[in-house]
Structures are given as C-alpha cells and as structure tokens.
Amino acid sequence: MSSSDSDTRARMNLSQEVDDYIKDTIDHSLGLPISIESLQKKLLASEESHLRLRDQYLLLLSRLKEKDQVLDRVRSEASLNAQALKKFVEENQKLAEECGNLLGQCKKWERECLLYHQDRDALMEFGNEADERAREAESRVRELEEEVARMSEELQARKRHIGIEQVDNCSPLEEDLLDSVLGSLISKDENIVGRLFLEANIQDQSCQALLSKWDRLKPSTQKVLSLVSVAKKFEKERECIIQNLAKAEQEAELVSKQNRKLDKENRKLLRQQQSPLGSSEKSHKTASAKSNKRKCPKMMSSPIEKMLEFSGSPEINRKPLSPVWDNSLDSRMTKK
C-alpha cells in the first residue's frame, strides 16, 4: 500500500507541476502577469540547478586534477622506464662486446693449448730419442771402456813381462796383430782425434809429452789415444744427453701445469657464458655494478688478463736445450 501511495503522490505532484506550467504558458501567451509564487519557484529551481551544476563542475574539476596527476606520474614513470631501458640496452651492448672479446680470447687460448700440446708431443718424442741415444751412447761407452781396459791390461801385462826395451823390439807379427785389432775400431781418418785430445788436455804433463813426440809415436799408440779420446767424447755426450733429458722433463711438467691452469680457466669461462640472464631488474643492477667497476680500469683483473700476464712472464720462457754437438770433440775439431 505504501508503494501505491507514493506513486499516486508523485503523479499528483507531477500533474500539479504540469498544470502550473500550462497555466504559466497560457498566461504568458495572453500577456497576463506571472505570479510571484511561480517566479520564486522558477528562481529556486534555477538556483538548485545552478548548485547542482556547480557541484558537478567542482567534482569534474577534482577528477580532472586527479587525472592530470595520474598522467604526470605516468609520464614520469615512462621517462624513467625509457632511461632504464636505454641503460639496459647500453649495458647489453657492452656485455655483447665483452662476450665477443672473451670468445676471441678463448679462441686464442685454444690455439695456445694446441701449440702447447704439439710442443709436449715434440718434447716427448725428443725425450724418447734422447733416451735411445743415451742408451746407445752408454752401451758404446761401456764397450769402448771395456776394450780400452782390456787393451791397457794387455799392454801393462806385456810391459811387465817383457819390459820396455823388449816391447820396443817386439816382432812385426805382434805389431801387425795389434794394428789390425785397433784398425777395426779406429780408422786412419780418426787418428787425428787422439792428437786433438792431447791438445785439449795440454795442461797435463803426460799429454804434453805425448803431443811433443806425436809424429814419433807408434800407430798403435796413436790409435789407443784416439780410442781414449772417443771414449771421453761419448762420456761427455752422455752427460749432455742426460742434462737435455732433465730439461725436457722439466719443460714437459711446466707445460702440463700450464695446460691444467688453462683448462680450469676455460671451464670457468664456459660456465660464465652458459649461465642464463636473470630478471630485468637483476640484470640492470648487475649491469650498473659492472659499469661502476669499469670506471676503475686499474682495479679490473679478469682471469684472461691474468693468464695473458702469466703466459708473458719471463719464468715461462723456455730454456734452449744444450746441443750435443757444441760439447763434442768434433765441434772443437771444426773450430780449429
């Protein structure tokens, strides 16, 4: 019932307003004066509409200010995002350049590793050859030492039993036999080796005396001295080969240490290159931190630079192996 009453009241009010409006219109068309009450009602209605419009204007103005503030905030955020994006792009370009440099240095290290492997193989082959030559030289020296010892014993035995004078007057058959035995070991061209041996050891009185009467010595004595000189030569060559072998082993050990260090650095670089990039904020922070680090080039010490300094240090410069020819008697023969 209440709803029906309200509807009827609204209709009555509406009809009253319509009636008043029709009445005012008729009076205005007829030129009759409008009542003060109707004018006051219109004035009140216009004031109410003015107030409503003012309230709506103020509300819209406040909303416009809020929208302007929101727009300003959005613009500032957009400018900050644009600056951050620009920095991020620059850092990405710098990181790409650094990655390119790292790849170039990795290729350079790969070439260095290949060269070190080749050097190591060459050193191993040289070591094997040096071992073989050392064994051959040792066996040859032992044979010559045994032969010289045997011949010295024979000579001493002959001198003890026969005497120096009888040895000087020994039969031609014995001389021929001794010359044939020594000739099988020493050729005629190698007799000069004995003279060079005496010249090299001229400080010794015995060597000086033998050198002074070299042309008067018997061929067998000259050949014995040549055998002694060859034995000394092989002994010195054996020592030189042993020294070269020790140097080769040291260089091989040094190369293996360097290879292990290079392998560690390569694995570290590969892990750094294969690690995925994080979020944009994290990459921005890390990029800004890297840019701050790059402002101090003196404090930057990458593993690549360390390895380059390590490879260029004078401690790694290889010492040349001492050649066997320079220590031999044949080299002195050619020099003289």
Automatic annotation (TrEMBL):
Cite the entry's keywords alphabetically: Coiled coil
Stretches the record annotates as Disordered: 271-336
Bias class Basic residues marks the residues at: 285-297
Extent of Polar residues compositional bias: 271-284
Q: TM spans, by residue?
A: none
The UniProt entry, under PANTHER family, shows: EARLY ENDOSOME ANTIGEN
Q: What is this protein called?
A: Protein CROWDED NUCLEI 4
Q: Which organism is it from?
A: Raphanus sativus
Gene name for this UniProt entry: LOC108831137
